[in-house]
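Reproducibility note. Readers wishing to regenerate the assembly model reported in the main text can use the exact inputs given here. Chain order matters: entities are listed in the order in which they were concatenated for prediction.
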Amino acid sequence: MFSRLGSAFRQNARAYSTSAKAELSSNTKKAISSVVGITGLTLGYIVYQDSQTGKAMTAAEHGLQAPEYEWSHKGMFDSFDHASIRRGFQVYREVCSACHSLDRISWRNLVGVSHTASEAKAMAAEFEYDDEPDDQGNPRKRPGKLTDPIPGPYANEQAARAANGGALPPDLSLIIKARHGGCDYVFSLLTGYPEEPPAGVQLAPGANYNPYFPGGSIAMARVLFDDLVEYEDGTPASTSQEAKDVVTFLNWCSEPEHDERKKMGVKALLIVGSLYLLAVWTKKFKWTPIKHRKIVFNPPKPPKRR
Amino acid sequence: MSFYSTIFQTVFKRNSVYVGTIFGTAFVFQTVFDDAINGWWETRNKGKLWKDVKVKLAAGGDADDGDDDE
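Running the prediction on these inputs yields the following structure tokens for the assembly.
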């Protein structure tokens, strides 16, 4: 196609150069050459930009794009829904914690966020932690305290892999920050398991199909079902409700400073905005005499001649 | 005495008073500003904050069937 275009162009050019040479005004020539130049530059830019990215992966390998959801904490000035964090912790504790650890969260972090101090203490005391050895050097155990981290399900990575067919369940402390799409992705992943993998999809033994997971083949099976947990506040525990609550909880785990940060953001916007206006006003105030002065040239009078 | 000369006589004339006024104003402003923003924040996010949730939990879990925010 380009060669034909090129030959047509050449013929045209020859036609112009031979017969119509004298009739072309210089403005027409300028217009033609500028159109040719702009077209060439644009095409060159497009080809260059296209050469800068490589698309080695198929769409399925990227994973399905998660839809955007209206999270209760999505807005610029919206805090977390702490009732949802509390329900989400219940979901984590009863479902997710069978395989996933939450290493960076301690029991004390829950106090004042989703639980009272006495509730957190009671939950911590249900677990045993290593204590200092006794006088003979024998290891001892003690019940958990507020300052202890929430214990994971496995002692180490090898144990976790051995129990999950070679796959390592990731730590969930920072999972919302650690995945593209954040809340939307994790919610879609949890609720996006189809009944059957689509025709033609080959899965390794023990693997499950989830279109949102990059590659589609995920070791985790669907875990959330309707009425899997019973919420203490009477919220109907549908699959999507459980997923929404646990994602809100995990988002709090990733961003425990979230509420304070947004509140601080309001203050910063107001203060910095006022200071900006003040700076503009000061500049105008200081520059007014300079901008508005008038310089007049008074030529010296020519000396009188006699 | 005009407004500007009053200001000058009371605040700007002595450096000690001037600096003291700056510190005092900053102290008062911060308190008032923080309280205002906190109040606005808590009104805007009413029902979602832990202090509201805590009250609801203490009142009994079944009281909030209607206004559960999803």
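We highlight two features of this model. Chain B touches chain A at residues 33-34, 37-38, 40-41, 44-45, 48-50, 52-54, 56-57, 61-62, 64-65, 68-70 (CB under 8 Å). Confidence is low (pLDDT under 50) at residues 62-70 of chain B.
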